[in-house]
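Budget justification aside, the reviewers requested a transparent look at the raw inputs and outputs of the sequence design task funded under Objective 1. We therefore reproduce one unedited record. The lines immediately below are the structure tokens for a 552-residue chain.
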């Protein structure tokens, strides 16, 4: 239930806090005092669109906050868990709208988007106004009424889960068929490209070594000539480096007896001589192995040309990318060759899913058909209590051939308020007051079967008076035994039924009009209801009438 509503900087409200009670809460006040403004503010924390032009002060942000007691509603706790929301028995919804129109929403101080805020709001409060009777002609709402009385929420949830899987599988099937058709059309092309790459017998790491080998083969004569020259300077020439180093070592050897440091230099020079001999030997070996080989050069060049052409053709830079492409082509070929098997398998699964859905839809349909007479009977009984004893509600049921998200049932409410008149769609044969009473009877019926914490009626009593108004109040009073009811009314018969009564009024303060609200005491209720009966200055008879309505 809605425990408290806080409104800051909205329309004629600068700062307002309202605490609501269980049972039937009544809001009264003069036309234009701000009763609907309060509902407008409440709608903001239920996910409705906001406009900054309705701010009390255009320089400040608007903040609306609602505190809800939701303990005991297990479906709400599971919804919070499914959407990763922090659950608390005392849940707070808050909406902040800045002057530039930017909006932020919070649930228990966790930021949420408006879609999620609206989903939570729909589970907490049902607002019904005198202008919302169009909902009664909505096939979705009509089916919801039947489902509520049928009490097959678990069955319907199971059906809808499987229906989503069924639709997803059908989408996958269409994609698979399209991909298969394309793969088959391109099969020859894919096979040609794959064969070409497979024949190339590529190695991911061969390109760089081949390029180095070709470079060496193309420059073999120069390499051989320079290696011979280097070896000549190191070992074979008349003044070869090794000969001179050996002679230097002999001269140092002759002097080492005079100075130990010279001996160390001699040893270091001998190490250089050994290293230079090794370099000379390796240079000689490289020279001997360096040969001009035009056949090998042609072979390597041909291999590299093939690699370059394949890379250019497929717009890649490496053999690794070519091999990846080869694998992808192989997968496409396999898909083309074996896609029919995958399609057949998925089609069988879809057939099985459809069969299961049809069985569940039959169960749903049976429950709905069983519930329809009860709905017709209970709604007409409630209407009779509200002065519409000749009203007839007939619910037409039709079984469709195609599965939908709700099964195979098509529901249509047909109505007449007068004896001897043909049944028709409700909006065509019912007045505003009759539609209001019809919606009230339907809402009261739904409330017996669903766990909705709060329902709000905004002047739903329009078009009724006298004893009918008294009956409407009694229906609301009965409804409030199962859930919190908040109703805005101008009728004393209904206002007297409330367990809590709130008066909305305008207050002119420093040349600024503000909307205020207060909870009335017992004596204040008597006076307010007396005013609703006879005007601003009620006489003793009006006051006595008010006491009688209040059973005081």
């Amino acid at each position: 239930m809605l425990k408290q509503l806080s409104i800051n900087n909205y329309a004629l409200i600068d700062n307002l806090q309202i605490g609501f009670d269980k049972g039937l809460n009544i809001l009264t006040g003069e036309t234009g005092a701000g009763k609907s403004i309060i509902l407008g503010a409440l709608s903001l924390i239920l996910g409705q669109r906001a406009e900054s032009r309705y701010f009390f002060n255009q320089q400040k942000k608007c903040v609306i906050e609602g505190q809800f007691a939701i303990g005991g509603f297990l479906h709400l706790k599971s919804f919070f868990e499914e959407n990763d929301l922090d659950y608390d028995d005392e849940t707070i919804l808050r909406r902040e709208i800045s002057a530039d129109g930017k909006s932020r929403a919070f649930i228990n101080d966790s930021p949420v988007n408006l879609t999620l805020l609206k989903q939570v709001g729909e589970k907490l409060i049902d607002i019904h106004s005198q202008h919302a009777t169009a909902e009664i002609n909505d096939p979705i709402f009509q089916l919801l009424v039947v489902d509520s009385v049928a009490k097959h929420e678990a069955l319907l949830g199971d059906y809808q889960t499987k229906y989503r899987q069924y639709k997803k599988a059908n989408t996958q099937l269409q994609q698979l068929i399209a991909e298969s058709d394309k793969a088959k059309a391109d099969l020859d092309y894919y096979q040609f490209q794959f064969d070409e790459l497979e024949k190339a017998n590529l190695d991911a790491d061969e390109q760089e070594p081949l390029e180095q080998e070709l470079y060496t083969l193309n420059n073999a004569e120069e390499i051989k000539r320079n290696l011979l020259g280097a070896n000549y300077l190191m070992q074979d020439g008349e003044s070869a480096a090794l000969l001179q180093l050996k002679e230097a070592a002999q001269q140092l050897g002759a002097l080492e007896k005079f100075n130990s440091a010279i001996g160390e230099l001699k040893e270091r020079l001998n190490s250089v001589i050994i290293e230079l001999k090794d370099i000379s030997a390796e240079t000689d070996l490289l020279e001997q192995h360096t040969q001009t080989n035009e056949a090998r050069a042609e072979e390597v060049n041909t291999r590299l040309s093939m690699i370059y052409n394949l890379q250019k053709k497929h717009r890649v830079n490496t053999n690794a990318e070519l091999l990846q492409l080869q694998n992808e082509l192989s997968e496409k070929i396999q898909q083309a060759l074996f896609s029919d098997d995958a399609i057949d398998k998925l089609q069988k699964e879809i057939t099985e899913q459809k069969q299961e859905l049809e069985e569940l839809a039959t169960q749903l349909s049976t429950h709905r058909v069983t519930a329809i007479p009860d709905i017709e009977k209970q709604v007409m009984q409630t209407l009779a209590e509200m002065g519409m004893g000749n009203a007839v509600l007939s619910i037409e049921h039709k079984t469709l051939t195609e599965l939908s998200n709700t099964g195979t049932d098509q529901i249509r409410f047909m109505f007449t308020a007068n004896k001897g008149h043909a049944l028709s769609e409700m909006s065509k044969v019912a007045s505003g007051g009759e539609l209001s009473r019809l919606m009230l009877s339907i809402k009261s019926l739904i409330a017996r079967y669903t766990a909705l914490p709060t329902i709000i009626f905004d002047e739903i009593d329009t078009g009724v008076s006298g004893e009918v108004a008294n009956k409407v109040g009694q229906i609301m009073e009965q409804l409030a035994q199962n859930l919190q009811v908040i109703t805005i009314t101008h009728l004393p018969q209904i206002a007297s039924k409330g367990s809590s009564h709130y008066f909305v009024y305008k207050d002119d303060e420093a040349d600024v009009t503000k909307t205020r609200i207060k909870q009335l005491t017992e004596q204040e209720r008597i006076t307010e209801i007396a005013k609703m009966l006879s005007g601003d200055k009620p006489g003793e008879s009006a006051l006595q009438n008010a006491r009688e309505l209040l059973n005081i």
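The first strand starts at residue 2 and ends at 10. The mean pLDDT is 87. Computational costs for records of this kind are itemized in the attached budget.
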